[in-house]
Request: fold
Amino acid sequence: MIYYMPVAMLAVSGLLCVLLRAGVLRLLVGIQLLSLSAALAFLVSGIGSDSFPVSSGEAYAVVILLAGLAQFGIGLGLSTRLFYLRGNVDLSEIENLKN
Amino acid sequence: MIWVLSALLGVASMFAALGRSFTSAVLALWCVNLLFGCIALHFGAEFITLLVWVLGSSSTVAFLAYGSTFGEILDPSEGASSRRARAAHPRGKLAAFLPVGGLLVSVALGWTFLLGVNGLGLQKHGAEGTLGKSGASAVARLGEALANGPMLALLMVGVGTFLTIVGVGAISRPRVLKRAAAQGGVSES
Reply:
């Protein structure tokens, strides 16, 4: 159970970052923390489990990390476009579809 | 060991999430990635360790480069692409660390690789104990994974070069985005 402590800390930090920060780059930092938390959860869940071996956990963790990398790339691309169009990357100012 | 790593990971992740300065948050995120790799190494997952260290270092360089471009680190309107203005601005000196950081990461990975190969050679000759069987042999196992997989070693060299190139690109980044930011954004019409 102790192995899930870093998982919980990463998840809480990522959620706080996503909920409290307004910048796109800070949002990407939070998403990366959440992605690391999910990967570590799969890695840890394989320890001491016969039905879910460590190798399966590693495979899932690799998939999650690579998916997180793809999200990161797409996020940076979108933020570049946003910066080019509006001159800043503040999420609170994006209200084009409002009303 | 896992207690220490967990505590450090918790502190670093809190800094990454709640740090006021973007630079400190990104550097804390880098520490989170490195500590994640250490925890994975503790569990015997060498490939994930290598993957997280490489991806974490690359994303840190990318965050710093984009943060510098967007004005999170250095305001582009202050002439960020000017060498003289950058030298005059204290925070602009951070950009000079990017290529140096890329070189340091590649040297560190190369050192790990050599240490692992050295550990393998010692074990083949029966001279175990120099690196130890349990503690430092975790590093040797990482080197073993690299030595057994030439593609991983190639990836390591490639990523080191990539970090250096991205760092150099961050210093001499395009003036187009800076000009767009100075004008307050460019409309599509």
